[in-house]
Amino acid sequence: MSNNSEKQGLHKSVINWYPGHMAKTKRQIQDSINLIDVVYEIIDARIPLSSKIKDIDNIIKNKPRILIMTKKDLSDPVITDKWVKYYEKKNIPVLLVDLTNNIDYKKIVDLTAKLTVNLQNKRIEKGLKEKEIKVLVVGIPNVGKSTLINKLAGKKVTSVGNKPGITKQINWLKTPYNILLMDTPGILWPKLDNELEALNLASTAAIKSEVLNIEDIAYYIITIYQKYYPLILKDIYQVDSNLDPITILVTIGKKGTSSNNNDILLEKGAEKIYNDLVSGKIKGVTLDQDEYAKI
Ligand SMILES: Nc1nc2c(ncn2[C@@H]2O[C@H](COP(=O)(O)OP(=O)(O)OP(=O)(O)O)[C@@H](O)[C@H]2O)c(=O)[nH]1
Ligand SMILES: [Mg+2]
After folding, report:
1. Where are any strands of DSSP class E within 253-293?
2. CA of 88 to the centre of ligand 1 (A)
3. Would you identify the CATH topology of the domain 18-183?
4. Tens of pLDDT, residues 58-112
5. Which fold has domain 2-11+192-293?
6. Atom 13, ligand 1: which residue's CA is nearest?
7. 141 CA to middle of ligand 1, Å?
């Protein structure tokens, strides 16, 4: 990886992105954590390692937690299964969901009720009525926090979008399940000093493509396809997966443009590769392969 990165001119100094609202959100979460009964920690099934907030345990302390892996419809099912087992082995309750359907989110309601049954029973024993369960929904940008909240609310109560930074402030939102949800802006760690991780975040639009460089991101995506998913190159893009990544990008860029300028073709190819992955047109891809976790 470091060789590729040097070739592409990817320097650590560029990967220093920490908008002010993230630090603020983190502080606000820490200030209200005592109110919270359950935490939904949201990660993207395509990057189950890179999308996990590094200091999450410090933020959410020992609150009951459900690790929710979204975008199961977009990830590689074989590798995803390994990641689910990896987290389950760490005794973290994991739910794998596709938030584009109307079924999967119900598993979240059921597990929340299970995790809070003791708390509710204690109240009933004391003659109190069941309390509304306060849930913190936390994760990096663009993993589907607000989409999940809209599903649980049964209607659009918060904005969603396929780019980072849609949610700008903390909001409390009601659901019909006696669950009150706290939507939060995506947070990241101050320095993205792991290049592979930064490329994974950029390839799934958890950070803006401008934070790195679209050609570097596309080059990286091509290397992933070459190593793990060569059929995507062969069948979807009709290119020879054994060519070097730059030639592959230029070849893809040629489709739909009359230019002969290789720089323009490279840029067009890079944009196509990036947009096709980010938009979900390309499915069945996991960027954090199982070898990274030695699972
Ligand atoms: N295919 C697919 N798309 C999903 C899924 N969950 C969310 N999305 C899409 O992912 C994008 C991001 O969703 P949001 O709910 O805005 O993400 P967020 O975590 O709230 O993002 P920020 O507010 O920017 O932190 C949207 O385009 C959603 O439609 C899923 O399970 N499958
Ligand atoms: Mg949001």
Report:
1. none
2. 24
3. Rossmann fold (3.40.50)
4. 999 889 999 999 999 999 999 999 999 999 999 999 999 999 999 999 999 999 9
5. Conserved Hypothetical Protein Ylqf; Chain: A; domain 2 (1.10.1580)
6. 144
7. 9
